[in-house]
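Sample intake sheet
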Amino acid sequence: MKHRIVVLGAGYAGANAAGRLAKRLHPADTGITLVNAEPDFVERVRMHQLATGQELRPRRLTDVFAGTGVQVKVARVDAVDPDRRTVGIVGADGPGEIAYDTLVYALGSTAADGGVPGVAEHAHHLAGRQSALRLRDRLAALAPGGTVLVVGGGLTGIEAVTEIAEARPDLRVSLAARAGLGDWLSDKARTHLRAAADRLGIVVHEHTGIARVEATGAVTADGRTLPAQVTVWTAGFAVHPLAAATTLRVCPTGQIVVDDTMRSVSHPGVYAVGDAAFAPGANGEPLRMSCASGVPSAHLAADVIAARLTGRRIPPNRIGYTAQCISLGRRDGIVQWVTPDDRPKPSAVTGRAAARLKEIICKSAAWSISHPTAMLPSRRHHAIPSGEPRVTTPA
């Protein structure tokens, strides 16, 4: 009987995990099913581009995984039972259930309101394709002189506000950041970021917390009103609540607690990758929610699963960061070099060179998804019978 592997979610983490498993494991011994609510792979790192009217290339998952042995199931996951090893789904043909031997949980994250009143009712976000399309329609409906407020001074907020300001110079665009603008960056990168905001005419409200969002703007923690016809909320992300409703051990954020091999500490048949995982990174600090964490965690989990099934050596965890890439519209950007534990180095690439470098990185990530069996030599090993001693030859 084949070992059944089910991967939940086909974002950067889930799609990479499924593709890498297909390269590592022989189809005669294992069956891989990838479950995703949408039929296409969505480039989440480009949602700010989609929101400003740019078109993104569609990537049908059935086309992406054709010939790999990965079975794509378009369905919404509505339950996980890690004790029975089953997943409840709702697809076009109604509710159903999928049994697994090994589960890779990669359902990712969505926007979090942080408990701020009015966010759900009055703010837009960029956590997914549908939300980005709704924001695109709203921005397109704004007349010249319209007002847009982006809340959140992290990577998503900076990319969103600069993209909107560049695409619609006829709008009055502002940013509310709880801390200083780019205060985690190096001096060179922070100076460039401030200059870009000035060049694009962005009004920046630093050290500004938001207490409430209304239909006509936002009210700050100190009682000021920031007028906006459109408010874009980028102040944090939250994971899918599904894991917290199971017997899986989760942390207070709802992420699945995993060990150094991305394996659940409570259920050895479950692995969590990407935003869904509370995973140790360099120096023991948890990995941050990002594509930069999701892809290497997916690769590690796939290699570990393959090693355990085929009796080969467990690969070490070497996940660490290299850079933070920030687009500032289509012709400007910042590539901030960082240490493996994500602390900024003094050096950074800025301007058009940074924009080109980030575009290369984004295209490479999407290309690797679209060609899941092209990146590494195929080493499809056979699974060993259950209980057979594990050997230590390199994977």
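Comment: The chain has a mean pLDDT of 93. The chain has two domains: 3-108+240-320, 115-233.
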